[in-house]
Amino acid sequence: QVTLKESGPVLVKPTETLTLTCTVSGFSLSAVRWDVMGVTWIRQPPGKALEWIAHILSNDEKSYNMSLNNRLTISKDTSKSQVVLSLTNVDPEDTATYYCARIRIVGTAYYFDYWGQGALVTVSS
Amino acid sequence: DIQMTQSPSSLSASVGDRVTITCRASQRISTFLNWYQQKPGKAPKLLIFASNLHSGVPSRFSASGSGADFTLTISSLQPDDFATYHCQQSYRTPFTFGPGTKIDIK
Fold it and tell me: Fewer CB near the terminus (10 Å): N or C of chain A?
């Protein structure tokens, strides 16, 4: 059974760094040649659309949403089955529910097939 | 970035209705288009990836389209289908989502 769970602070002050952890089970973050998958982070501000943030694949390929102005770092600890997302210099516009999800690749089609429950993060002083 | 739009933004429908939602990309994306269902306070769920029904998703859901114009169809709306539906392109990063289409009960 594939599960993902986000953890991290509920409240962060402006200019601080937000660090979120996604703990996965039911699949491996290690590279498997014939089945590339990974973890992606997506956020949703209250009442707004979903926004893709970043992903890291089992082959260590990383990709970031450059609209977040180079504030992002994504990494994984395969032994702990965890993916960590850091977002520096947060401001109130970063207030959102942050989801991690498994990313699958079939051919060249990417999709997000299992999602965590989400973690609401508020940026406020 | 590729911009995604959806229409309508919301609609009211009854159980048993056939419902179609449209998604449009700002540039051609071949068939790299996914659909998700989201209920209030819950995470999105994958319905369809690149016109393929995800495992466990009822066959009343179907999708079509290629290039820039896509549709999601629910052939006979069920009580569990009242939710918000999001399209998402996976043609190029940054992957982008549409604003969502909310289906509520008429």
Answer: N
